[in-house]
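Please review this one:
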Amino acid sequence: MRGWAVLGTVLLCVLAPVAIVYGLMAFTPTGSCDYSVSGVCSYGRLPMIVASGGTALVWAASAVLTWVGTRGRRPRVYVPYAALVVIVLLVVVAGRVAG
């Protein structure tokens, strides 16, 4: 079981930074948001915050929840995989809000 937790953590550490960069590049406004209330400027730039900030938060929390407090016990195998699903959902929600 430990191998599955390691694989999940490696996948998380490879894919989460990609999602963060995608969230920054895809949802950062390229023009002024002074009078715009749609697209990437909607709700105070919420899509960028959800995609990038949410992903960073989920990434950190899942790394901690997977491995901290498991000395002598098995790591929590399901946490990194659940975090990957949550990260995909965050990017999809950010796209829906911006769309």
Observations:
- The two ends are 40 Å apart (CA to CA).
- The mean pLDDT is 89.
- Residues 2-27 form the longest helix (26 residues).
